[in-house]
Amino acid sequence: MATRASTFSRGTLRKRIGELQCLYGIASVAAMPGATLEEQASRIVELLPGAFRDHRRAFARITHGGREYVSGTPFPDAFILSADITDDGERVGSVEIGYRDAPAEPDICGPEALLLNAVAERLGGIVERRRSRDQLQTMKRKAVEFKALDRMKTNLLATVSHELRTPLTTIKGYTTMMLDYHAKLAPEEIRDCLEAVDAATDRLRRLVDNLLETSRLEAGMLKLDKRPGDLRELVEGVAAEARLRSARHDIAARVAADARKVEMDERRIRQVLDNLVENAIKYSPDGGTIQIAARRNDGGVEVSVSDEGPGIPPQELAHVFKRMYRLARAPRKPGADGLGLGLSICQRIVKAHGGTIRAANRETGGAVITFTLPCRADGRKKPRRAKEAGA
Asked: To the nearest whole number, what is the mean pLDDT of the chain?
């Protein structure tokens, strides 16, 4: 009888030592710096069978986040104990341990259940700490983003205030002068004043349009109405209007015959071309040539707007399409300042069409902005339906 009790005590002692080693190992895994939750669960599930008296016959399984981690071989008729893994009182997974066969001693369930609950509690603590750490990192990231947004908003307000004040000052100054000195001004002087007011109004309209367009794009409100269109007609229309706005430049247009038919939102591509031509006018010297060209390439149609201005500093080529980015070194004409939104808007519209846009310097001097538009391989119009043909 004494020998049997001594044997039972030694077996119980070995099991308790195994349980302590298991819990110590789990605590060590939980404290591993930089380990992912998946790595920790994989290591812990390998430790669990060692807490059984006959760990060669035991298996363990942890489920969490839709994933399952298993050590040993589970069997359909295995004797299984299970405990829930909870995070802030909510069940987020489970941990199971078991034997191939039910243990002969009925009192095994008590100690094993205690062990299992301790493991589940430890796993819940790991999950909770990971969630808290992720939430903290998210909050830090959002704080940085909010700080950047606040700084951008401050810069935008300062820039908008400055840019809007310039044309408003011009409009106010010339209208006041005409009102106060109308009787003393010659007709040509009045015309000069009206032309200055007209130019300032156009500039103000462009600034407001770009601000509104940027707001729409940021809100994800860009919707394309893509239809087969005539690129030559569009380009020639843009060039004709640009000649009226700037008689001091030679605005040339050249569209290859095989590049006329393109699937596009004509209003949006017109907006892109207007922005690019307006940009070229800003930086081109009087008498310079601004050329709009279109030709076929392997992926569709390539459209470019080139000028004879100072070009773009090489270190700034990669940044010109960023929102509110303005060239720091290139000389500009009086009144050529802007919000730095035009090229950013162009890039978003072109990308929405499935195309690309890039900036480069010409070997002969000046800059060229090129964008691509996908198009039908044959370049032909879609055939009309029978009903339309008979109409």
From this structure: 80
